[in-house]
Amino acid sequence: MTPRPTAQLRRRVGRGLQRVQACPLLLLTPKKMASPQTFTLLCGLLAATLAGATLSPAAVLSLSPEVIEEKLTQKLEDHDAVDILRRLPLLRTMQTKPARGILGSVVNFILKYIIWLKVTSAYVLQLQIQPSADSQELVVKVPLDMVAGFNTPLVKSIVEMHMETDTQAIIQVQTSERGPSLVLSNCSNSQAGLRISLLRRFSFLVNSLADKVMSVLVPTLPTLVRSQLCPVIKAAFEDMREDLLRLVRVPLYLGSDHLEFDLLSPAIKDNAIQLNLWAKSLDSQGEVTKWFNESAVPLTMPTPDGEPFSLTVRQDVVKAAVAALDPPEALMVLLDYVLPELARRLKSSIKVISEQVADQLGPTQIVRIMTLETPELLLDQGMAKVAQLIVLEMFATSEVHRPFFTLGIEASSEAQFYTKGDRLMLNLNKISANRIHLMNSGIGLFNPELLKDITAEILTSALLPNENGKLRSGIPVPMVKALGFEAVSCSLTNDALVVTPAYS
């Protein structure tokens, strides 16, 4: 009779299972139960190791100040920033909020002689975006150029004043309950950057009145611009941010499958906005086949060299894209009809093994080629290779059902990335049979190395064109045109593919 476990033993096992759940890489063995101190130490070491590891996002989109300036300028136009400036209520502000003391007396004096006062023209000049002193924020400067005029019974002409001022804000990363996000804050407009001058001189009396108007506008205009324009700048920035998120979420269609990216976290590096992305691959039914989150897989970022944007994609994500375009397949080749010269040379190679077997090869001899797995993309020193596991079966004629022999081939090809418009293209060059194994033989044992060269040539002539045909559709990069460019160029690092704009 098997003894029942004691309550003390059950509690000990229960505590052990809880520790395994808390630290799943640890295993309990039936021979010896680890002590609580051992569990605590090992879990602590594991946590420390993971915490110290540098985790890389699946991809990184870096946007230069020029791109941000262009996108934010467009959004300011969409939000009618210029019209907001033209409708600044200069006169009403002076009427409803009169100052006290000497300034109040000046305002009251002005109001007696002013019929109307308004902005007659306004422009938002070239935005300027520069890194802050600690390079953790971006300083956005919005230069404004306006002309304001007032009408007075003292002169028939409109008295015009040229007004120049700068509105400034900060782009920074703020963390909330929903995670880190890019925000625009500290929008301000100060007297320090305000310049007001008369466009045309009049009589002494009119000039004196204009000087008084300008002296009142110096403290009034910055507050007015800040209250009217800063909400518009903030709304324009939020729209731009949402547009950037939408463009990174556009699917990359890869045959019947596709890749999707989304924001993992934003960052500000030097003078660029950096969007760290995660990714997922989906099949034709929309089911997720693989997630690409932060990983210990390295990601080498390119050195900034003034490019408007760069998209750096981690090696395993690129590999998934290539695999989606080139899934495993099987093809049958009638050698005598399709590749007669190779059929003749194969027969000669088999004669070395057995003349009797070679004589059995008929005009309908068939080679069946099967790729067992998706291609394995390897990046090294800026070069790309694709490794594949291939099975090749040799049938004497189209009527037989059992192959003469079956070979397992560890093959590789040089891979060349290039671009066509806004698409990434990949072409595989000559296939090399690195290792060849005899998996099955109906003609007796033989050294498969005798068929290594001819096998590589058959794969290059039959399999390679078929694979390159599947890769011909390329990998679309829809964000390129969304960022205002027509074409891209690409380069390789030791562990990533880097996409940048191409210039004609």
Walkthrough of the structure:
By secondary structure, the chain is of the alpha+beta class. It has 13 helices and 21 strands. The protein has helices at residues 7-22, 36-52, 65-78, 81-86, 90-96, 101-113, 204-248, 315-325, 335-338, 340-353, 355-359, 452-471, 479-482; strands spanning 59-63, 116-124, 128-131, 138-152, 155-176, 179-188, 195-198, 252-254, 257-269, 272-282, 288-292, 309-314, 330-334, 366-371, 376-380, 383-395, 405-420, 423-441, 475-476, 488-492, 496-501. Strands 1, 8, 9, 10, 11, 12, 20 and 21 form an 8-stranded antiparallel sheet that branches. Strands 13, 14, 15, 16, 17, 18 and 19 form a 7-stranded antiparallel sheet that branches. Strand 17 and strand 18 (423-441) form a beta hairpin. Helix 6 (101-113) crosses helix 7 and helix 10 runs antiparallel to helix 12 (452-471). The protein is rod-shaped and about 120 Å long. The termini are far apart. The relative contact order is 0.10.
Number of helices: 13
Separation, N- and C-terminal Cα atoms: 86 Å
Which class best fits the helix and strand makeup? alpha+beta
Main pleated-sheet profile: 8 strands, antiparallel
Strand-helix topology:
Blueprint: H1 7-22, H2 36-52, E1 59-63, H3 65-78, H4 81-86, H5 90-96, H6 101-113, E2 116-124, E3 128-131, E4 138-152, E5 155-176, E6 179-188, E7 195-198, H7 204-248, E8 252-254, E9 257-269, E10 272-282, E11 288-292, E12 309-314, H8 315-325, E13 330-334, H9 335-338, H10 340-353, H11 355-359, E14 366-371, E15 376-380, E16 383-395, E17 405-420, E18 423-441, H12 452-471, E19 475-476, H13 479-482, E20 488-492, E21 496-501
Antiparallel strand pairs: 1-10, 1-12, 2-4, 3-4, 4-5, 5-6, 5-7, 8-9, 9-10, 10-11, 12-21, 13-14, 14-16, 15-16, 16-17, 17-18, 18-19, 20-21
Helix pairs in contact: 1-2, 3-7, 6-7, 10-12
